[in-house]
Amino acid sequence: MLKNSNLSIVASFLGLWITSFFENKVQIIFGFILILSFGILHGANDLVVFKKINATNSATSFLKLISSYVIIVLFSAMLFTIIPWLALLLFIIVSGYHFGEQHWQELEIKNFRLLLPIFQFNYGIFILILLFVFHVTEVEEIIFSIIGINITFINFTYLVLIFGFTLGIFFVYLYCTSIKFRENSIEEILYLLVFSILFKVGSLIWGFALYFILWHSIPSLRDQVKFLYGNYSFNNFKMYFKSAFVYWIISLLGILILYLFFKDYRLFNALFFSFLASITFPHAWVILKMFKK
Predict the structure, then answer these.
(1) What is the pLDDT of residues 90-142, one digit of tens each?
(2) Nearest Cα to Cα of residue 214 among 231, 194, 190
(3) Phi, psi at 113, each rounded to 5°
(4) I need a labelling partner for 45 at 20 to 30 A (CA). Which of 11, 179, 213, 253 fits?
């Protein structure tokens, strides 16, 4: 479960208050700035994290690590080109699990271990659909620009009710079986209320950016710093930033090239989210291995 959540709540509402003075286009700019800063940065050190995970395997060279990572990225990009609807579906599924895994990485379900990843997936997907349901028109436009399929036949309200219902069942089960969950159950329900307000009041990009940065990327950064250097401190964060800097700049340059060649708003949105998907697949895989370690 999240640490420093009170600070995240305050920062979330501060972000909403500040952007309430700006029109939607300005909110989108602020949202992209957040995503391109902490959002991209929190996945820029994947190779370093993966290298430490495999530190005991002398046969694994750094070149092999880079090759494996690049292959996954290229395969993801190719999938978006050949079968975009499948790539997008996988992106939503992987992202949902990844968000839930980060939020609930300290939770343990001893009797039925398989329930934990199912619960994490349910939680993360619920968060994503909760965001979609407040911005259906924008979501439909972005998805159409990515896969060329009109998804107006999908009822996001029904989906949020279905996943919300199953999430409620999980909450009841965990309340009855987990002391740690029971101690934090009221807070967790409060967080869902906070997310609902963020997504309802903010624009699609700004609401997503606030959640993605404050509730996912920054906690993930802390966990990665602790994994790499033993504990979280400002000095250790600087070491993390130095090692991630080159990969972070390469990612930003890639996005800049996309923007220069495809300045059309809808087309750039499609390519931008496709790019995020391509780097999300290997990142989620690395973090999954890190938590197991």
Answers:
(1) 989 999 999 999 999 888 887 777 899 999 999 999 999 999 999 999 999 88
(2) 194
(3) -65, -30
(4) 11
Q: Give this prediction's pTM.
A: 0.88
Residue range 41-54, pLDDT digits in tens? 888 888 788 878 77
